[in-house]
Amino acid sequence: HDDELKNRKDIPKDSVLRVHSLNVQEYRIQPLDILSIQFESLTTEEFDFFSKSSPSMRSGGNAAANAAVTGIMVDAQGEIEYPVVGKVKIAGFTIFEAQKHLQEIALQYLKDVVVRVRMLNFRFTLLGEVNGEKTVISTNPRLTMMEAIALGGGLSELADRQNVKILRQVANETQVFYVDLLQETFIESEYYYVQQNDVIIVAPLRQRTFKRYFAGNLGLITATISAAFF
C-alpha cells in the first residue's frame, strides 16, 4: 500500500479501503503500580473500612504528585491490604477484573457496593528524535505507540519512523525490539500498544548529519568561501 498516494486522485473517498483486526491487550496490574480504588455502598461510613483505607484523589496541585500521595501501591508480591480482609492479590488482573474481584470480596461486608479501579502511574519514557525527551505519566493504560509519542510532543523532522527501538520490562528481563511506525500492518502487531515502563527510543535518519550540521551552516560556509576570493 506504499504506492497508493502516488495516485491520490484515484483513492476512493468516503469509503473503507481496508480493515485490520486489532490485537487488543488489556493492561494487567503489576507490583508497584499505584491505583485509585474507590468503594461506594449503602453501608454507613462508620462501618465501611474499605473506603477508609482507600483514599480518593485530592483536587488541585500537580496531578502526578497527588496520584503518588493518595493512591494505593500494589506491593512487591502483587497484593494490597485491607483491615479485616487482609491481603488481596490483584497483580495479573486487568483493571476490570480487579474491580470485579474486589467487589465480590466487599459484598461480604457491605451493601450494594460498587468498586471503581483506576490506574494512576502508567508511565513510559521517550528518548531520541522526539520533540522533548521525557517520562510521561498517564491514567490511561491502553495507549498505542503513536498515541504515546504524541503525548510526548511527537517526532522531530529527522526521526527514523521505520526503526523505533523499544526496551520493555517483562518479569525479571528486559526485551529489546524494533517497530516500524510506517508499516500499516503494525496495527495488527502485538507491540502496537505501550506497556508499563516502556522506553521508546527514536533513532535519527542517516542524513541527520548533513541536514542538521551542513545544511544549517551552508550560508556561513558560502560566505566564508566568497570572502576568500576578495
Highlighted features:
single chain, 230 residues, alpha+beta, five-stranded mixed β-sheet, three-stranded antiparallel β-sheet, 6 helices, 10 strands
Please compute the radius of gyration using only Cα atoms.
Answer: 25 Å
- What fraction of the residues are assigned to beta strands by DSSP? 25-35%
Mean pLDDT: 80
What is the number of helical segments per DSSP (H or I, 4+ residues)? 6
* Helix vs. strand class: alpha+beta
Number of strands: 10
How far apart the termini lie comes to 55 Å
Low-confidence stretches: 56-69
Order of helices and strands: EHHEEEHEEEHEEEHH
**Major β-sheet annotation:** 5 strands, mixed
Helix content: 10-25%
Strand order of the largest sheet: 7-6-10-8-9
Shape: elongated
Write a brief structural summary.
With 230 residues, this protein is α+β, with helices and mostly antiparallel strands. 21% of the residues lie in helices and 27% in strands. A hairpin with a 3-residue loop joins strand 3 (79-82) and strand 4.
Describe the protein in words.
It is a single chain. The protein is α+β, with helices and mostly antiparallel strands and 230 residues long. Helix content is 21%, strand content 27%. The chain contains six helices and ten strands; from the N terminus they run E-H-H-E-E-E-H-E-E-E-H-E-E-E-H-H. The model is unreliable at 56-69 (pLDDT under 50).
